[in-house]
């Protein structure tokens, strides 16, 4: 490799790092918004709808592999336009109603622009995958001004998350040649997880509305909280 090629590669690597930096900031902006909601619910409400918030930045290899798989040109412009999950945030909730509540609270914020919603809870994927994905733009304020950064936020329940992580591990382990009996088992487990979510939701609402004095309409009075 001559000196010029090596210098070009170093330059390209720097540009990729700068490209990824914006996604890191966008991901952190969204995580902070969700963390604020989580802490507010923790202080003021008896039930916190957010169990867990995780985030990850797709690696350079992961981005290029996805671009190649989908026939996307490996230019920064094309990656920005067509790869939506470079910055990913995952929110795990206890119940499906919590998922919908947090989606509404996040997407109704003034500085958020919703690009697309993929509701795999209402319409699960054929393999049984359930989650609600929101692709959104959030402004990031850099030294040169504000830039809209695309972030994919995945919302799911604990049961959906358990299923998705097992399914992901299975595919990773068998390198996509998953035996049929495992695929069938996963499909069955996805249905059981959906049933569990529905039962837990029903029980949760019953417990939430129960009042020892028998009046189910009266809101329970909570002690004042000092912040
Ligand atoms: P990783 O390793 O999590 O990053 P599109 O954007 O519509 O052109 P894409 O990106 O495949 O196509 O969209 P989709 O279907 O919304 O999937 C985006 C992400 O959702 C995936 O990212 C997974 O994280 C998750 N996901 C989607 N389908 C499944 C599934 O069947 N099982 C599991 N476990 N996760 C799923 P990546 O890049 O595939 O992977």
Structure description:
- The protein starts with a helix and ends in an 18-residue tail after the last helix.
- Strand 4 and strand 5 form a beta hairpin.
- The model has no long low-confidence stretch (mean pLDDT 91).
- The chain is built from 6 helices and 5 strands, in the order H-E-H-H-E-H-E-E-E-H-H.
- The chain has one domain (22-209): Beta Polymerase, domain 2, CATH 3.30.460.10.
- Helix 5 runs antiparallel to helix 6.
- It has 227 residues and is an alpha+beta fold.
- Bound molecules: ligand 0O2.
Task: Look at the helices and sheets and give the structural class.
Answer: alpha+beta
CATH H-level superfamily: Beta Polymerase, domain 2
What hetero molecules are bound to the protein chains?
ligand 0O2
Q: Quickly name the level 1 CATH class.
A: Alpha Beta
Report the sheet-strand fraction: 15-25%
Number of helical regions: 6
Q: SSE order in H/E notation?
A: HEHHEHEEEHH
CATH architecture: 2-Layer Sandwich
Low-confidence stretches: none
Q: How many strand segments?
A: 5
**Global morphology:** flat
């Amino acid at each position: 490799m001559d000196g010029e090629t090596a210098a070009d590669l170093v330059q390209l690597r720097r540009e990729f790092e700068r490209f990824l930096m914006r996604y890191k900031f966008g991901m952190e902006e969204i995580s902070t918004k969700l963390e604020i909601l989580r802490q507010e619910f923790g202080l003021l409400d008896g039930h916190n709808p957010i169990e867990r918030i995780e985030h990850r930045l797709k690696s350079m290899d992961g981005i290029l592999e996805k671009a190649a798989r989908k026939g996307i040109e490996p230019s920064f412009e094309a990656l920005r336009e067509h790869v939506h999950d470079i910055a990913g945030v995952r929110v795990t909730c206890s119940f499906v109603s919590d998922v919908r509540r947090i989606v509404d609270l996040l997407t109704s914020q003034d500085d958020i622009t919703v690009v697309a919603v993929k509701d795999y809870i209402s319409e699960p994927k054929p393999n049984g995958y359930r989650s609600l994905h929101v692709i959104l733009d959030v402004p990031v304020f850099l030294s040169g001004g504000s830039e809209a950064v695309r972030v994919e936020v995945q919302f799911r329940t604990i049961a959906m998350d358990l299923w998705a992580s097992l399914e992901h591990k299975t595919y990773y382990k068998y390198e996509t040649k998953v035996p049929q009996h495992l695929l069938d088992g996963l499909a069955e487990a996805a249905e059981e997880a959906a049933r569990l979510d529905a039962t837990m939701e029903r029980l949760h609402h019953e417990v939430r509305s129960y009042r020892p004095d028998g009046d189910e309409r009266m809101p329970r009075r909570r002690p004042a909280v000092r912040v």
